[in-house]
Amino acid sequence: MKKRINLFKKKPQLDFISVNAPLLKLYLNGAGVLVFILFLFLMNNVFVLNAQQQDLIKKKEIYLKYLLDEKEIEANMRYFKSKQTQLNNFLKDDANFHPYYEVLVNSIGATSANAVLDTIEIDKKRKTRFVVKFTNDEEMMRFLKNIESEDFLKNFVSLSLQNFNLNKQASKSSRYELELQGIFKELTKK
Amino acid sequence: MILPFRFYKLRRIIINQWQLIVSFAVFLLLLLVVFIFYARFNAQKKEVDLMSEEVVMLKNRFNTLKYNKSLTEDQIKEYNKLLASLIPETEDFFSIIYALEEISTVSHFEITNYEINIGKTSREKLTLTAEGRGNSDEFLNFLQQYQFAGGRLVTSDQIQYGGMNSGSTRITLNFYSKRFAFNETVQVPQLSKEEIQKLLAIKQKIKFQFSSSDYQSVTTDYAIKNDPFTSVADE
Predict the structure, then answer these.
(1) Among partner residues A29, A49, A83, which is closest to B80 by beta-carbon distance?
(2) CA closest to A51 among chain B residues
(3) Would you list the domain boundaries of chain A?
(4) How far does the CA of residue A110 sit from the closest CA of chain B (Å)?
(5) Model pLDDT for residues B10-22, shown as the tens digit of each residue
(6) CA distance A131 to chain B (A)
(7) Number of helices (H), then strands (E), in chain B
(8) Cross-chain CB nearest to B62 (options A50, A63, A124)
(9) Sorting pLDDT into bands at 50, 70 and 90, what band is A9?
(10) In chain B, where are the structural domains located?
């Protein structure tokens, strides 16, 4: 049988690099340019950072020198601020009773000259319980009217009458007793 | 010697494509340099960020000192004495007794008895229940004065006023003490006029000359160890 060569048959690619050399050169050049740009960018940033660092070192030196010279004043100032903060924080524990007590005393005083705020309890949550004593029923009724007024009730979140005592054996100044219980609204210190 | 076909092939590639191979080597070298620069850039950036924070902190301290003109150094020292008296570094029972007496004298509300409330007392706060006697005006005076009149900061969270009857007026009083800890990282804000006015008002409420023994000007002269394995005294 006669041997024939098929010219249309594709030869197996033995040398990939040789065959694709132009394309590989193109890719390599492209990648090289990109990496070089990245290199320039990084180099620039490193120089900028270096300059920043030098600037920061100079500033740090200036500040440290000043702080070292004024260290006693700074320590005193820090002590002052620290104690002042402590003072403000601890003052939050205070229930600030004065305005509440004053409101009650003034209201009772306005109602009757003889009415007496006998006992009073106030806690931090502004819960209150107080006893008012009267010499006669007229004063007591006047007080009851007063505590129902808008002017008096504006100081309270809630207020209720808990107890009423009529003690004929007691001294004249404290025959009628009213016990009230409620919660104050937050009042600011005058 | 007959070399294998692969060797011939490789040699042919090297001879024909040497430019490509050199370009690739240069590219790899460039890539390595970029990585080194990137690592250096990262390290330096961290360093600069850290230093920036430090400089900002120093700048705040610098500005606080330089532009805080609301109080003079002497005024700060004076107020420090006052604050050290109100909130001492450590608890001092004698000053509590003195404060109670002083409040009693100033307000005319007589404190007849007091007992320490152990349950409510903590490291920074000493709580005691005081019993007293006084009329309505005296009690009102007491309520106005108790916070600062004794030269110690006093707060109260519960009162039970029982008129003139001794023993039926009970007031919970809290006394405070707290150590000052120097922390340079905490920013000191500028002193406001309101704060100074408030302190001035407190100062005016304290009738007696407060003791300066509690407060010695804050010192920053402390011994520094050169060798961490020896005591300061040895050096």
Answers:
(1) A83
(2) B48
(3) 19-72, 98-184
(4) 15
(5) 777 777 778 888 8
(6) 9
(7) 6, 4
(8) A63
(9) low
(10) 1-68, 73-180+192-204
Instruction: Determine how many CB atoms are found less than 10 A away from the CB of residue A100.
Output: 23
For the domain made up of B73-180+192-204, the CATH class stated in words is: alpha beta
Complex-level ipTM: 0.71
- Supply the CATH classification number for the domain A98-184: 3.30.1360.100
Q: Are A80 and B76 in contact (CB < 8 Å)?
A: yes
pLDDT at A55 over 50: yes
Using CA atoms, how far residue B132 sits from A127, B57, B111, in Å, is: 21, 51, 4
Nearest beta carbon to residue A90 from set B48, B155, B195: B155
Among the residues of chain B, which ranges form H helices?
5-16, 18-67, 73-86, 93-107, 136-145, 193-205
CA distance A150 to chain B (A): 25
Residue A114 exposure: Cα atoms within 13 Å on the Cβ side: 15
Best of A48, A52, A97, A190 to substitute, by most chain B Cβ atoms within 10 angstroms, is A97
**pTM for the full predicted model:** 0.68
